[in-house]
Fold this sequence. Notes:
By secondary structure, this protein is an alpha/beta fold.
Amino acid sequence: xxxxxxxxxxxxxxxxxxxxxxxxxxxxxxxxxxxxxxxxxxxxxxxxxxxxxxxxxxxxxxxxxxxxxxxxxxxxxxxxxxxxxxxxxxxxxxxxxxxxxxxxxxxxxxxxxxxxxxxxxxxxxxxxxxxxxxxxxxxxxxxxxxxxxxxxxxxxxxxxxx
Length: 162
């Protein structure tokens, strides 16, 4: 499995993924890593109906996502991994999924969170996890769709941390 991008987006599979990210990245497979969704057969069926047949889809628990590197059907496929939160992206890395690019497209706000883009809110814990991921060599950007300007998280993290 060739992980091109991990994307934080709690909507998982929707128009921006189907119409923008999949064609832009020339994705051959999509992995949705979410503990709740992985146990919900009804939601998994809905997600699988939304994905074009030519795209392989795997929906798995976060701690099991790294094991997909041994999935013969996904071997060398250009893969987009979608998680619902920054914490889940952090957990993916800790569980052993090797990735170098993290895109934050949609992250819900909490009471103590600061808004850093139209659809992204971060709290102190998020900022700490993002800093750790950057120290591990992960490039992190904010971008809803590929046609928008990319915002490098390094350029705003100090400002937001204040």
